Structures are given as C-alpha cells and as structure tokens.
Amino acid sequence: MKIMDAEALPRFVPDEVAETYGYRQYSARYGNIYTARQLAQLLAEARGDFSPADPVWEKNGRYFDSQRPSVEPDGLESPDEVLRHRQHHLNQVATAIRRTGLFIFTFGLTEAWTHRESGTVYPTAPGTQCGTYNPDQHAFVNFGYQEIMNDFLTARRILKRSNKRMRFIITVSPVPLTATATGKHIEVANSYSKSVLRAVCGRLADDHDDIDYFPSYEIITSLNNRGIYYAANKRNVTPEGVTRAMEMFLHAHGLSQQAGHSDDEQHDPHCDDALLEAFAG
After folding, report:
1. Which of 96, 107, 83, 97 is closest to 198 using CA atoms?
2. Do the strands 167-172 and 211-213 form a parallel or antiparallel pair, or are they unpaired?
3. Sequence spans of domains, the chain
4. In the chain, N or C: fewer CB atoms in 10 Å?
5. Of 163, 169, 166, nearest to 250 (Cα)?
6. Phi/psi of residue 189, each to 5°?
7. pTM value?
8. 119: nearest Cα among 93, 90, 154
9. pLDDT digits (tens, 9 = 90+) for 27-47
C-alpha cells in the first residue's frame, strides 16, 4: 500500500530535478490545485466531460499548459506538444482515480481567474507566469461558501463513480495570502478566505460519513503556538510544523507504531506512503 504516484520518475533522478518539473509532489503531475472549482474541472476533464478554454499559453516563443503552467518551467516547443503532454497527464489522472481508495485534498484559495465565456478556471492569473491577460476575456472571481461546497460535492460525485467506497480527508492550507485581487487589505482578504474554506470543510465533514477533516490549519495557526511553526517570512510552514502535524495525524489514527523507520528512511519524503493507505482501509 502506498500513496498514488501516477506519473513517477525513476528513483535515480534527483529530487531537485524532479520537483522542478512537477514530479514527486502530487499523486499526478497537476501542479498546485488551489480551488475546489479547479479540482472539479480537472476530474471532469480526465473523464472526457470538459475541455478547458484557452488551453495553451505562450511566453517568449515557448508554450505552456494553462492548467499547470509551472510544471514545464521553460515551456515546450509548440502548442501541439503541450496538448500531447496534457492528454498523457489526463490519462494518468484517470488511472489514479480508478485506483484510489482515499482522496486527500487541501483547500487553498477562494480567489481565482476564469475565462468569462466558458467559465474555465485557471490556477494562476493569465499574464503572470505566462500567457496574456485580456480583461474582455478573463475575469477575477472570489468564490463563496455555497459555490465551494457545490464544487467539492461535484468532485466527490465524480470520484465515487470510479470507486463507490472512496473516502476523503480534507484540510485547509495554513499558508496565508500575500496578495489579493479583491482590492481589500490583505489581512481582511486572508481572513475571509480561510474562514469560508474552514466553514465549508466543517459542514462537509459533519454531513458526510465518508469525509473527515484533519485540523492541520489549527495545529499550525493556533495562538497557543505563538507562530513557532512559521518561517521568518511568517508565511511558509517550517519542517518542524509539518512534522508536528503529521505526528498528530498518525497518533490520532492509531498509526504511530507503524511509523518506525530506519534513519535513512526518516529523511525520505516518500517513506510514509503505506501509512496513509492503511488509513484508507
């Protein structure tokens, strides 16, 4: 039993190289999935039920997947090559869905950028990493409680079509916003975002027996900790914070005794794969 890695690289490829190109960070090479809308959209696309608008972005003569612009930091040679890579990725996502028993999702943001006509949502604003922002074509959206709730329930329905017994762990990212497109003070925008996401998670966990909420957000942000789990920039979570959250997760689910590893394994970020699958049952 292990964490799904549908787009794996050989172990001899150094982690630094792999992570630069979006490997060994997710169960497939999606890049960051910040919103529930983005998650539902990806799952629908993997099933062949959705095609994103404006799928290829350009920068300096190189071409990027608009749905995961960071996974090829130097871009590809042509739009056709981007689309071929995209189709391979979607095939692997579909495979991962069919084989998954426990799905873990972290709610990260309420803010996103969309394609006005089609509603396609993007992980980053067009024109930041690549592509071109067109105010007539693109629009900012700050999702509300009911929209986020509906989007995750849509994602859940899609996933359960592949495995009726699939279960879910949901969390809220403790990483605060450093920028907002709302025009409000960043502290106000961050408070709104985290409050809405936490409220959605609470209701999902209360209403559905197959959804469990893990309080990594509270573990890191608790006033009792006086910010000790944040790095000097007051945004990134320290390795100590990650370790503390994982220790509490394993202990809460009776897995602490299974977490024994050799000294070498303790420094391998992939060595705890079986523990999460064990919780999936």
Report:
1. 107
2. parallel
3. 15-213
4. C
5. 169
6. -65, -40
7. 0.87
8. 154
9. 999 999 999 999 999 999 999
